[in-house]
């Protein structure tokens, strides 16, 4: 077996039928280092069947902003070329996957459909709809996590401390090198012309956030970014990753979010560099594997994952006890969006997010905690934080964003701290703390 059997599970009781194997690509939009594609290729090879890759893009899906669709489409164009090099066609279908995938599978007479794992609401609903409508076998492969989410733990983990030992125990088994994607015969492309990729503006007419020009999408740009990080900055990561002016972080999250780079590839690269940057490699692997995969664990096991109701009991209680505390400042969503608060530091963070499609990880925490402090309620703060993050961040609409906002606003995966106004026992951050960590004025000057 090419792919570890614990990465793979059936989503329908149906046996595989005759006919092509279709890989329904969703979250892992790359040709290389993709366990779902490798599994589909293996099934096709064993059955002597064609292999097709389908991508269904729903421009009306919640959070489908123009800048994210632009990044996705340009990355997918490169993926299509990589697939064609292996004589594997990519088909682009526009529309709600629940509506467009089943007719496609019927039209090509597919016997098996392989889909990559995604724990978010829209993806879970779409997979359930396809499972109900498709007569062949629907098989899911976790190609996004180093340790498959549904295998790593059978329950929602309380904190990173409870999740870490489970992951570390399984790393030797799952952090393995990737095999190459096999090439198919040229006949596998028959009847499938190259995709005429539409421009993002033609797909998303609501133009929620304009495209970001200075972050190159695609697998090649992702691989270069990884090589530069591991070669030049991994050493600095351990000490300087919380300084937004230091340029010490990897900046890889848009590529992981868009599936243009496998986190497992980045983990292998960091491990290989461990001898020259031991502390940096360890710190990076903790964020990349334990912290990132904890976010998938949370969303997968928490049906109301983006709501106040999903917070730990201690946090709900303490925030409720402080619901009527006087807010020294209380802003409407439009004030936050326009970076029109009284705080030059907060406004600079919002401008970084809106202008560049990125926000440094340390500033993200400060940014979201101040939204809690300056909003009418924690429920409103969660909604505003998620809406702004998902609209403007290139890596938005991701389990990491859900957890980041709920960690900041509602103590998710955290512990109670000293009691104070508005926050109750949720961990507090302020500008004075930022000034102790980095040159706040230099940061403000960059995003004036
Ligand atoms: C309010 C808030 C919102 C966030 N929204 C998002 C989001 O929409 N998408 C997103 O990918 N991340 C989000 N994060 C998590 C984290 O801030 C980003 O992953 C990180 O800043 C991305 O930059 P980087 O790739 O340079 O990270 P690096 O520091 O280089 O880390 C490498 C990788 O590890 C993972 N990682 C790092 N920090 C975290 C973390 N705290 N939790 C989970 N995984 C982590 C990411 O995949 C990241 O790309 C959010 C955090 C907060 C507090």
Automatic annotation (TrEMBL):
Any one of the GO BP annotations: photoreactive repair
Family recorded in the similarity comment: Belongs to the DNA photolyase class-2 family.
GO molecular function terms listed in the Swiss-Prot or TrEMBL record: deoxyribodipyrimidine photo-lyase activity; DNA binding
EC number: 4.1.99.3
Regions that span the bilayer: none
Claim: Aminoacyl-tRNA synthetase is one of the keywords in the record: no
Protein name: Deoxyribodipyrimidine photo-lyase
Reaction catalyzed: cyclobutadipyrimidine (in DNA) = 2 pyrimidine residues (in DNA)
EC supergroup of this enzyme: lyase
Positions of the Photolyase/cryptochrome alpha/beta domain: 19-149
Cofactor: (6R)-5,10-methylene-5,6,7,8-tetrahydrofolate; FAD
Keywords: DNA damage, DNA repair, DNA-binding, FAD, Flavoprotein, Lyase
InterPro entries named in the record: Crypto/Photolyase_FAD-like_sf (IPR036134), Crypto/Photolyase_N_sf (IPR036155), DNA_photolyase_N (IPR006050), Photolyase_Class-2 (IPR052219), Rossmann-like_a/b/a_fold (IPR014729)
């Amino acid at each position: 077996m090419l792919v570890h059997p614990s990465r793979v599970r059936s989503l329908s009781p149906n046996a595989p039928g005759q006919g092509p194997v279709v890989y329904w690509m969703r979250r892992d939009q790359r040709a290389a280092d993709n366990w779902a594609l490798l599994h589909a290729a293996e099934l096709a090879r064993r059955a002597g069947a064609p292999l097709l890759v389908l991508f269904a893009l729903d421009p009306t899906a919640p959070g489908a902003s123009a800048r994210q669709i632009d990044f996705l489409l340009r990355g997918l164009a490169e993926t299509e070329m990589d697939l064609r090099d292996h004589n594997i066609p990519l088909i682009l279908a526009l529309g709600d996957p629940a509506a467009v995938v089943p007719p496609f599978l019927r039209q090509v007479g597919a016997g098996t459909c392989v889909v990559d794992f995604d724990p978010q609401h829209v993806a879970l609903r779409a997979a359930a709809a396809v499972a109900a409508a498709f007569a062949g076998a629907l098989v899911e492969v976790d190609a996004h996590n180093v340790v498959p989410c549904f295998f790593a733990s059978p329950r929602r983990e309380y904190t990173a401390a409870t999740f870490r030992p489970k992951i570390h125990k399984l790393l030797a088994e799952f952090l393995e090198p990737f095999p190459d994607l096999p090439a198919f015969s040229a006949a596998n492309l028959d009847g499938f012309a190259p995709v005429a990729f539409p421009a993002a503006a033609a797909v998303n007419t609501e133009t929620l956030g304009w495209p970001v020009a200075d972050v190159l999408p695609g697998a090649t740009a992702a691989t270069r970014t990884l090589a530069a990080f591991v070669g030049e900055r991994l050493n600095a990561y351990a000490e300087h990753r919380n300084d937004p002016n230091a340029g010490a972080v990897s900046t890889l999250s848009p590529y992981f979010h868009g599936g243009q780079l496998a986190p497992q590839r980045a983990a292998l690269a960091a491990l290989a560099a461990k001898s020259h940057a031991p502390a940096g490699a360890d710190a990076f692997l903790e964020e990349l594997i334990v912290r990132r995969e904890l976010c998938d664990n949370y969303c997968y096991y928490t049906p109301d994952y983006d709501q106040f109701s999903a917070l730990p009991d201690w946090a709900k209680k303490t925030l409720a006890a402080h619901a009527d505390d006087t807010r020294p400042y209380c802003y409407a969503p439009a004030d936050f969006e326009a970076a029109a608060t009284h705080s030059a530091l907060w406004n600079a963070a919002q401008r970084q997010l809106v202008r560049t499609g990125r926000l440094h990880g340390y500033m993200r925490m400060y940014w979201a905690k101040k939204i809690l402090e300056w909003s009418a309620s924690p429920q409103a703060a969660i909604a505003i934080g998620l809406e702004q993050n998902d609209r403007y961040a290139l890596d938005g609409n991701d389990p990491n964003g859900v957890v980041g906002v709920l960690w900041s606003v509602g103590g998710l995966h955290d512990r109670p701290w000293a009691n104070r106004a508005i926050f109750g026992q949720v961990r507090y951050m302020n500008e004075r703390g930022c000034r102790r960590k980095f040159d706040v004025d230099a940061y403000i000057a960059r995003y004036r």
